[in-house]
Each structure stands twice: as C-alpha cells, then as structure tokens.
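Researcher: I've been going back and forth with a colleague about how Alkanesulfonate monooxygenase might be arranged in three dimensions. Neither of us has a model we trust, so I'd like an independent prediction. The organism is Saccharothrix violaceirubra, in case that matters for your notes. Sequence below.
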Amino acid sequence: MTSAAAFDRQIPDTAARKVEFISLSHLNPSTELDPIPTRGIDLAYFRTYVRALEEGGYDYTLLPYGAGGADSFVVASAVGQLTERIKPIVALRPNTTFPLVGAQKLATLDQLTEGRAVVHLISGGSDAEQARQGDYLPKDRRYARTSEYIDLLRRAWTEPAPFGHEGEFYRFDDFGPGFAPYDAPIPISLGGQSDEAFRVGGEKADIFSFWGEPLDDLTAEIDRVHAIARAAGRTTLPRIWVTFRPIIAKTDELAWKKAHEYVARIADTFGKSAYGRQSFLKGTPQNVGSQRALSFADKADLYDRALWTRTAAVTNAAGASTALVGSPETVAAAILDYVDRGADLVSIRGYDTLADAVDYGRHILPLVRQEIAHREATGRRGTLQADHLGNYTEDYRRHATADHR
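Model: Here is an independent structure prediction for Alkanesulfonate monooxygenase. You can compare it with whatever you and your colleague have in mind.
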C-alpha cells in the first residue's frame, strides 16, 4: 500500500495559486462504454453538452482533431457562439493548415469570442495517422516544424509591417500585417514527451500538457520543461496542463464498483475496435506518452492517492486514459496533489461523457475551488487532503482490489 506523507498545512512552494478546468467537447452520444456507429454531429446533444460545461463552471473546452473527425476550427466557432465564458481550445496539426492561414483562422475565432481562443498544436505521434492526410515528415522533424509554426503564428499576429520568410518548412513573401487577435496574442499549448517536445515546449509554448502520471514522475517532467524554459531565458514559465479520466460515485466503495464495471466494458469496446480510431491504435504505440502510460500500467494498477492505470492498459494507452477513482472528495484531493506539484490547468473528462461532465461540475470543481479560495484567504492548506486519503488507507485498497463480478 502507498504510504501517505505527514500532512503539512503549509502550502508547498511548487503549488499553483489558481486552477482552471478543461473538458473535451463531444459531438454525439457515442462513448467507449456504449459505442454508436456514427461519423456525424448530433446537434441537440452537442448543444446540451456545451451548455452543461458552461453551467458546470468549466473554463475551457478542447475541440479535438483527427483525420476522420469534425473540423476543430468550425466546432470551436460554434462553441464560442453557444457560450459566453468558456474558452475554446482548437487542436491543430501544423501539417493540415499553413501557418499564416492558421493565424488568420485563430485570430478570427478570437475576435468572434472576444479573446477566448486558445490553440493546442499536435505535432503528430503516429506516422500512420499523419500519412492519412498526406504528411510523411519523419517524427523527429515534426517538432522542428511545430517550432517554426509557433514563430510564424506569433509574427502574423504582431508584426506591424509586411514580412517574408524562408525556413526549413515554410516560405512566403511580403505577408502582412496579418489579422490581429481580439486583444493579446493567443495562448499556444503543446504536448508530448519526446526530447523534441520538451525542447520546443520549454522554449516556446505558453502551456505544456501532460497525461495523468504518478506524482513523482510528473513532477520530474514539470521540472524538466521548466528548466528548459529557464535555460532559454524565459521569465514566464509554461503553464502546466494535466489530464485525467475520473470515475466517481458517492463513496470510494461505490466508485470502485463502477470502475471495474467500466473497465470491462471499455476493454470489450477496444477489443472489437468499436469506437473512434481504435482499429488504428493497436500494436506498440509510437508516441512516448503512450509508452510511458503502458509502462506505469505494467508496474502497478494504483499509484498515489487515487491514480488508476488499468484503463490505460486495456486501451493500449490510446490518448489520455489514466483514471482517478473515488468519491468526489477523494478525487478532488487527488487533483489538489497535482496542483501542489504545479499543475494549474486540469482537464477532466469521463467515460459516460455527458453525465460525467455534469457530475464533475456539481461535485468536483466546487471542492477544488473551495480549497483554492481557502488557501488564498488563509495562506494555509485546508483539510480535504488530510481527510480523504484514498489509496493511503487499507479500506480504499480493499475496495480497489475486491472482486466486483
């Protein structure tokens, strides 16, 4: 059993002072639990889902990108018009959109949403997926292309006079000035765990994203990206975004019953290649993030307070797939453990997508925000983490390993 460190009311020096929440927008009711054969948008469902995020108090929503999926720019624009506050994050692959056009589209979105646009650049972790849209650049050069892309986005938004460019990947003459964002340059997010990802993200990204990993391992990765940023002379370090797939219920025991039911259904869906791009995601993953997730899953099911890796194991770590399991209090305490290590952007999305988004908004976000408000008001940590120990107790471990068949 994992041992809990003695609880200290002192706020760690590494702790983020604020926390914002991200979800992922879903276009139809198909899930890993109940796959529905569809490639379309269920407009009524999408409106309901986005409204649930707004009412639930989320700050951002990610609009994902895939070769066979909906266009993330168009969906982000719809989110912007369906909400008043949520910031749409456009997932963008540099191979699909020329950088000056990408800058124009993002600035247009930012104007339409009065400064809410964010972009998450996906360099590409799978040669096969990249090739589906004609990208044959080797993986070790894709982050170099992303680096050049970032520079051109920022220049297109800020250069006051026309400029030309002749780089390794892009060339043009006499462009500009480009279409400007609403008020300030648009935040640029980057993810990945290859050496190239860390170099580009540390040197240039406003946000660096991770999947949920054991606390000490993720802390080392945060330290790494921040060290690269400092070495590049940056005075503002990248914000840290971490993603989980929480499985919650009223008590830890009920959450574990749900978790074991879920993982059996998810494994069945993946085995049948019945959801999304699962037929393309078998075999050894090419991206380092998935390799790391599978390595953690191979070593143990449970880490720290509530991190469960079996969901990654049964899906071949196809995307963000590690879970936090427990009561809302246990899961909120686990999220705060990551906040204490420096994460200030927390993405939580469930397996029962709409119902989970509603439940998180009702039961998780308020607990975390209450703790952050307490810290700001008192300069001390509250007792949530001390009172809800999760995997640091025998009872939780017993629920996690019980036979729920």
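Researcher: What would you highlight for our discussion?
Model: I'd start with this: The mean pLDDT is 93. After that, consider the following. The chain is about 45% helix and 15% strand.
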